[in-house]
Amino acid sequence: MRPKLRKIQVSLEQWQGQPVAVLRDPLGLMERGVAIPRSIVPLLELCDGTRDAGTLRSALELRYGLRVAPDYVDKMLSELDEALLLENERFAQAYEESVERFRSAPSRPATLAGTAYPGDPESLEGTLKEYLDMVPPQAEDMLEIEQLRGLVTPHIDYQRGAAVYAGVWRRVAAAAQSAEVAIILGTNHHDCHKLFTLTRQSYSTPWGVLATASDVVDRVAAALGKEEAFAEELHHRSEHSVEIAAVWLHYLVKDKVCELVPVLCGSFQKFIEGDGQPGDDEGVALFVDAVREATANRRTLIVAAGDLAHVGPAFGDRYPIDVVERAKLSSADGELVDLIASGDAEGMFLLVKKGGDRRRICGLSPIYLALRLLGETTGKVTGYAQCAADQQGTSFVSICGMVFS
After folding, report:
1. Sheet harboring 9-15: ordered strands across?
2. In the chain, where does the domain assigned CATH 3.40.830.10 lie?
3. Roughly what angle, to the nearest 10 degrees, separates helices 121-133 and 241-253?
4. 3-class DSSP assignment, residue 382
5. pLDDT along the chain (405 residues), means of 10
6. pTM over 0.70
7. Is 329 helix (H, G, I), strand (E, B) or coil?
8. Quick one: which H or E segment has residue 302?
9. Regarding the domain delimited by 108-404, which CATH topology (the fold level of the hierarchy) does it fall under?
């Protein structure tokens, strides 16, 4: 056997007073993690599918000077296999079974209920109302309702983003209540290979189920190719970006019928690193045309659920974000937000590409696609914030709210 490690989550923790690395499956096929001594972490890098257990032992000693007992690597590989962290037939079978369970379930569960937000419907309603009450009503809240066609909303946790969430969802409340279908474009934070990931599953919230517009999903899938559109469907099960927006939508529409089209948007990294750009990509054009055609006769709300920059040591930067750096972040975000507000999808992308996406704009793909779907449009900023991302206050996630008419 030549073991190959899957893309996994690794966190450095303490166990019984000893430093360990805890390995977890981002897809959640197995709830339990695997803890290994931090000194043995180099073994993970060697598990690339080219070495058997004996070669792994030799490589550990030759490259890193680590000597282990003859059966140590075998036991380690067995534990990784048991936790479904290796790419092999056992994982493939478990993955397919999980996909079938997801598709056959009554709906996609509200996975964050009870943790990121209250699971009790009355408590949740009170929480969101409290957020809305933080933002004083403005005269324009009730203006141009018929013209409001889309929005940018964060997908950070509600507590840190409360004011920005409240500012944008208050403004689109009436438009959401009159919408027949909402296209929610959320960032796919999983290690993914597809630009678009669809699902026919409906999304549950503590108030019930938001039905998915399966006819729209089917038309878009037919345009993209069903294998392409549903290849990574299981990502919907644990991805929070669409769920965070769906809860706000459901709170506003109450019992009115507004169907959902949940779309997870993959990374634009290949465009940032290469010569191409999304405006020239055939798949992007097919997606935009198919969504427009499928919703042409319905009152449609376009929702981009994406955050802006991720900066500081928590995200791999070598320097802390102090007052001066935060001012620079505000300026850089302002330039990006201005392009978004002008409806300039290509300009927004090129600005991020020019900087090599060094600020890690995780909402790049959903916001870009929202602008493409909206076409000629004008946006109005409803809020902006820099949210602390570590206990030291040296890392930040920036977010904004925006409505489009």
Report:
1. 9-15, 18-24, 34-37
2. 108-404
3. 90
4. strand
5. 90 84 89 87 91 91 87 91 93 94 96 95 97 77 69 97 96 94 96 94 97 98 96 96 98 93 96 92 97 96 98 94 96 98 97 95 98 96 97 96 96
6. yes
7. helix
8. strand 300-305
9. Protocatechuate 4,5-dioxygenase; Chain B (3.40.830)
Q: Tokens in use for 278? A: 């999304």
Q: Which of helix, strand or coil describes residue 63?
A: helix
Residue 105: name the closest of 212, 215, 201, 27 by CA.
201
Q: Given 3-state DSSP classes, what are the helix, strand and coil percentages for the chain, each rounded to the nearest 5?
A: 45, 20, 35
Q: Look at the block and give the residue holding tokens 């897809």.
A: 27
- DSSP three-state, residue 117: strand
Under DSSP, is residue 128 helix (H, G, I), strand (E, B) or coil? helix
77 closest CA partner among 96, 55, 61: 55
Residue (of 304, 305, 306, 316) closest to 389 by Cα position: 316
* Tokens coding 156: 């950070």
